[in-house]
Structure formats: structure tokens, C-alpha cells
């Protein structure tokens, strides 16, 4: 069959993630919920893409399709990774295992990759140290605060040195201070590793600090209705929060989003 969406000359040469006309519907017939799409998306190597949108518009659905956890109802989503480097996902609810120690949680992806135990332990320790959790290696997640659990989830995702990182509101449950700290850490980290990232957030501020671009989604069924590129060169620091352009972009995005939240409330 002929490709209904052949690459156009403006497409990036080899996107790491490429979605074409992706939709997702849950359920059948009268009770069906059209959750997402159609969505077209290209993410270039090393690019940090943020997605904002009203609650229930299909953001997690998109991420789960990208992670291969859910099939699109129509359309295609492809991920291109070199060598054997994996795709890692951080879930909205962290997705860490309460019955495994912190160390075993961080080692989890490495165990799946069959990294030898000694090396896996060393890498897990290293990431726990970077996340300020070294002394909790032997603890169980139930003994940790929300912020610490979240750092375990981040350490676990990054320990596998993923080529693509999919993050679903990873900082949503944290207090403002810790959130800012972790945003800055993630900024430094992704700029060092140039990890291709798709990041979902409710926070416009977070999206502007972190993103090479911010995509705004409509109310359900979620489609992309706008794209903005924060005008801050890389390497970037958290100081951009104080820039006048930052406030201006935040207001502009909020206006776009407010129209969609209004739609949703009226529906
Ligand atoms: N497994 C499922 N079965 C049925 N409906 C689902 C399922 N998963 C999601 N939905 C529905 O699809 C829509 C989009 O859900 P999704 O979780 O993707 O939204 P979201 O944008 O991530 O929302 P939030 O910002 O609140 O996390 C919602 O109406 C939701 O009820
Ligand atoms: Mg969600």
C-alpha cells in the first residue's frame, strides 16, 4: 500500500520518534471514547519535546503508545533506536515496586537487559548517589517520601542509559521547591547526555524551562494545536525562569490552553 503520509522535505532526516495519523479509541460502539488524535509528531535525535494539555485529553495515552504499551487504533508510531539502547518510561504514578529494595528498583531495567550483576549494582549505586539516595539503597520504597520515590523512578529510567526517555508528569506530586530542583537536575542531565525526551506536564513553567519546544494539545480527543520554541539557547539553566521572554511565553501558552480547558468544561 502506498504511504499516505510520505516524508516531506521539511521533516527532520531521521527522527527518533515518528508518529503519523495516530488515533486511539477506548471501548466500542455507543460507549466508545475517542481519546486521542489524529496526531503527527517527529522528534529529532537529542530533542526535548514537552506536551501540555487539559486533563483527560490523551497525553498519557500518547505516551503509552510511544512506549509500546498500547496500540494505536489507527495510524503508526515508530521509534528508531541505534544499537541495543532501550526506551525508558517514567509513569505518572512512578511505577516503582514496593516489594523490591530501592537498589533493586534502580537495577531493574539493567537486570532485564542482562547486564552482569556486578556492573548493574555499580551503575545503580552511581545513579542513586547522583539522586542523593545512596544511603537508602537497602530501604523499601514505602519508607520513602513522594519526592524520594520519584527520584528512584528517575534513577531507574536513567540507569539504563536510554536513547529515548518518555516521562509522564514525573514531578506532578512534588512540592514546588523539590520540583524546581529536579527540573534543574533533569535539565543538566539531558543536556549532558543529549537524551531524546518526550515529556508530559501540566506545568507550563516546567515545559518552558525544559523543552526545546512545547506542544499544546486540544481537549479530548487530543490533537496538537500549537507549537512554541522557548527562545533560550542551550546549555540552558533554571535562571531562564526570570527572563521576561519566559513570562511572555507562559502567558501565551496559558491563553492557548485556557481556550481548551474551557471547551472541556463546557462539553
Ligand atoms: N484503559 C482505558 N480504558 C478506557 N478509557 C481510557 C483508558 N485509558 C484512558 N482512557 C480515557 O482516555 C482519555 C484520555 O486519558 P489519558 O489518561 O490519556 O489523559 P491525560 O491527558 O493523560 O489526562 P491527565 O492529564 O489527567 O493525566 C480519558 O477520557 C480516559 O478516561
Ligand atoms: Mg495522564
From TrEMBL:
Domain (ABC transporter): residue spans on this chain: 17-244
SUPFAM superfamilies: P-loop containing nucleoside triphosphate hydrolases
Domain of life: Bacteria
Protein name: ABC transporter ATP-binding protein
Keywords of this entry: ATP-binding, Nucleotide-binding, Transport
GO molecular function: ATP binding
Signal peptide extent: none
Entry annotated with the keyword Ribosomal protein: no
Pfam families named in the record: ABC_tran
CDD domains assigned: ABC_NrtD_SsuB_transporters (cd03293)
